[in-house]
Amino acid sequence: MIKKIKFRKVKILLGAFISLLLFLSSFYFLLKPEFFIRNVFTKVIIIQILGVIGMIYFLALFYSILNLFSRKYAIIITDEFLIDNSKYESFGKVEWNTILRIEKFKKKSIQIFVDENVIKNQKMNILENFLVLMHNWNYKRSIIISNALLDCSIEQLYEEIILAHEKHKKNYK
Questions:
Q1: Which of the four, 7, 37, 50, 54, has the lowest number of CB atoms within 10 Å?
Q2: How is the beta sheet containing 92-95 ordered, strand by strand?
Q3: 80-98: buried (b, 16+ CB within 10 Å) or exposed (e) per residue?
Q4: Cβ count within 10 A of residue 123
Q5: Distance CA 153, CA 147 (A)
Q6: Which tens digits make up the pLDDT trace of 109-160?
Q7: How far is the C-alpha of 163 from the C-alpha of 46, rounded, in Å?
Q8: What is the rounded distance in angstroms from the CA atom of residue 173 to the CA atom of residue 52?
Q9: For the sheet containing 109-114, what is the strand order?
Q10: What does the DSSP assignment read for 36-71?
Q11: How far apart are CA 4 and CA 75, in angstroms?
């Protein structure tokens, strides 16, 4: 059994546009910090620091979203493994025997707890490490798959992953 889930290219385009707008608004924090002075942000330096942090994050997010255009499939589910390419910083191929448990996470995500060696053996660049840390605070023990850019619902995705994982456990016990 091979199940392939594609991206919704319109959502990728919308995500790139929104991240670019947020990057430009963060840049505006640097240019005109006086405009944002209110009760909470009383100092120009705080507003400028927020602008720099926002620029770094939203530029990294824009770059990561643009990289998804070249990928044909977001998720591939087979009898032996799961391939997660749903984000720039995804882990790629994860074998079923390294998955400890699978849970729904918030409303639109699935959290897959894996053996620690899977994540330790992953070779990632600085940008990928930064994005993993920003999106998953439990990054040393789990992988988060969101359906935000996928061409299926979270319920369908969860069901497909659970079925394939249980089938693998049944066949290899």
A1: 37
A2: 3-6, 73-77, 81-84, 92-95
A3: ebbbbbbbbbbbeebebeb
A4: 5
A5: 7
A6: 888 888 877 766 677 778 777 777 777 666 667 888 888 888 888 899 999 9
A7: 49
A8: 52
A9: 99-105, 109-114, 142-146
A10: G--SS---HHHHHHHHHHHHHHHHHHHHHHHGGGG-
A11: 6
Give percent above pLDDT 70 in the chain. Answer: 92
Q: Which residues contact 31 (CB under 8 A, 6 or more apart)?
A: none
- pLDDT interval class at 4 (50, 70, 90): very high
- Between CA 148 and CA 53 the distance in angstroms is 24
Bridging pattern class, strands 73-77 and 92-95: unpaired
Residues composing the chain: 173
- Between CA 93 and CA 82 the distance in angstroms is 6
